[in-house]
């Protein structure tokens, strides 16, 4: 066997006494053969492919390359040589949040946003009018999607009816509610924000399962009801973020204030019942082990077998800088490059019912992000004209990516650059020999390079 490549050593394996461990009797050769033959993989197969089946900690580089090659071949056979991206804007409404996830530095404790609190909280809250102005400008630049994921601001309610229900129970601390007038800036309701961002028929991608849970707190409304009202207000699809690791013994460590796995799945099912498109994510590289990662993939695949609404899977490596997990010494690093590669590859091989696997350049950076496109990924995220979440956690990447950069980078690795709509149904291929390059799918897109318009 070749020398092993060390994995990122975040935490001693026994620190949390997890019940699920990355141990299996499955052999690497059997699992790889199943993957190459296109057989549906078992969780044990995923574990042995993610670990490369060695007896000690570390990744076998030769076996790793075999897994990446199988995934890349499978990618080529299923979705071909196109690399897609979406022309989009991130418009996050607020950083106020009391949930206290240990991997997050996006939130700012909500009481700091109150009118009578003189401290500078360093965060932001946008009114619906502000969201509308920002999104309207970006529509002129040519975007086809606005993506919005926010902190769980205590004043945010689904709509006016929900706000009245919460006001009547304002003294119940379990509701995490304070009336909008207590805050320096009123975020409005979720439905008001959605209406404000729904400009010129732009695709609005928003309302994670966690936000949907916040939007029904204190009621017995079903997730279907909540998503129906949001859909009527302008919501077109929902990001399956807030997934982190869909295993409760991991959630109990990194995000004990969040909904559990069953609730996350129920919210996704409610959104699918309304006919909304969905994505799904995994946030890995903190305290979890490879069995947790494999189990997460199983939860997502089982869900997709039932709902069929998930268009893409998005692996997100944990950005550890400036997070409580790192600052409190619980983790000392994030995932290693080889773990990132294997996670992308095994996602492609395991998720046989989700066509698109995304490489996030915000998380991986350009070089590794491009490499991921040869490990099983076929989507390269979006232009994200504003990126606040990763930057606030100390991430080194972020900001924005122009269509011109996309075309050049994707062409440089011998693939075909394609602008896509959020649901992947509308596509526009670019000819690298025929500049200039600008978005064409947005309601006001006409092929004009977008960042030149911004500057
Ligand atoms: S991850 Fe989301 S819910 Fe958790 S603390 Fe951060 S903003 Fe709040």
What does this structure look like?
- The chain is of the alpha/beta class and 455 residues long.
- It folds into two domains: 28-79; 82-454, Alpha-Beta Barrel (TIM Barrel), CATH 3.20.20.
- The chain is 38% helix and 11% strand.
- It has helices at 28-37, 43-51, 61-79, 128-141, 160-168, 190-197, 209-214, 223-232, 248-254, 261-273, 290-307, 324-327, 337-350, 361-372, 389-392, 403-412, 450-454; strands at 82-86, 88-90, 145-148, 203-206, 237-238, 277-284, 310-317, 356-357, 379-382, 416-420, 427-429.
- The strands form three sheets. A four-stranded mixed sheet has the order 9-1-10-11, with helices on one face. A four-stranded parallel sheet has the order 5-6-7-8.
- Strand 6 (277-284), helix 11 (290-307) and strand 7 (310-317) form a beta-alpha-beta unit.
- The longest helix is centred in the first third of the chain and has 19 residues, at 61-79.
- The chain is globular.
- It starts with 27 loop residues before the first helix and ends with a helix.
- The mean pLDDT is 93.
- Iron/sulfur cluster binds at residues 97, 99-101, 104, 106-107, 151-152, 210, 255.
């Amino acid at each position: 066997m070749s020398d092993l490549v060390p994995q990122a050593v975040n935490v001693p394996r026994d620190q949390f006494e997890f019940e699920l461990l990355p141990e299996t009797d499955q052999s690497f050769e059997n699992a790889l053969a199943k993957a190459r033959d296109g057989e549906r993989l078992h969780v044990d197969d995923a574990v042995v492919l993610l670990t490369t089946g060695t007896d000690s900690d570390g990744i076998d580089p030769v076996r790793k390359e075999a897994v990446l090659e199988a995934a890349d071949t499978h990618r080529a056979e299923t979705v071909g040589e196109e690399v897609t991206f979406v022309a989009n804007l991130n418009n996050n409404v607020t950083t106020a949040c009391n949930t206290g996830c240990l991997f997050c530095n996006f939130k700012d404790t909500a009481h700091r946003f109150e009118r009578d609190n003189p401290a500078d909280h360093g965060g932001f809250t946008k009114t619906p009018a502000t969201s509308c102005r920002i999104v309207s400008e970006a529509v002129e630049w040519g975007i086809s999607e606005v993506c919005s994921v926010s902190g769980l601001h205590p004043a945010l309610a689904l709509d006016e009816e929900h706000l009245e229900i919460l006001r009547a129970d304002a003294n119940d601390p379990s509701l995490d509610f304070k009336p909008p007038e207590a805050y320096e800036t009123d975020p409005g309701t979720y439905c008001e924000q959605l209406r404000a961002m729904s400009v010129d028929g732009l695709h609005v991608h928003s309302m994670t399962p966690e936000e949907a849970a916040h939007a029904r707190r204190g009621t017995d409304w079903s997730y279907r009801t909540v998503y129906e009202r949001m859909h009527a207000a302008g919501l077109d699809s929902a990001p399956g973020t807030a997934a982190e690791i869909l295993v409760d013994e991991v959630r109990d460590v990194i995000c004990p204030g969040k909904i559990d796995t069953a609730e996350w799945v129920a919210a996704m099912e409610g959104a699918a019942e309304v006919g909304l498109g969905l994505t799904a994510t995994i946030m890995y590289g903190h305290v979890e082990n490879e069995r947790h990662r494999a189990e997460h993939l199983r939860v997502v695949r089982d869900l997709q077998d039932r709902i069929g609404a998930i268009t893409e899977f998005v692996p997100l490596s944990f950005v550890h800088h400036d997070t409580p997990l790192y600052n409190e010494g619980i983790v000392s690093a994030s995932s290693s490059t080889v773990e990132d590669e294997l996670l992308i590859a095994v996602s492609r091989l395991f998720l046989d019912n989700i066509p698109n696997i995304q490489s996030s350049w915000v998380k991986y950076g350009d070089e590794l992000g491009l490499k991921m496109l040869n490990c099983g990924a076929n989507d390269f995220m979006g232009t994200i004209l504003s990126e606040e979440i990763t930057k606030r956690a100390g991430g080194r990447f972020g900001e924005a990516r122009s269509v011109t950069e996309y075309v050049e980078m994707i062409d440089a690795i011998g693939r075909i650059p394609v602008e896509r709509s959020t649901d992947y149904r509308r596509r526009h291929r670019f000819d690298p020999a025929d500049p200039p390059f600008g978005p064409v799918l947005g309601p006001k897109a006409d092929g004009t390079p977008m960042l030149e318009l911004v500057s």
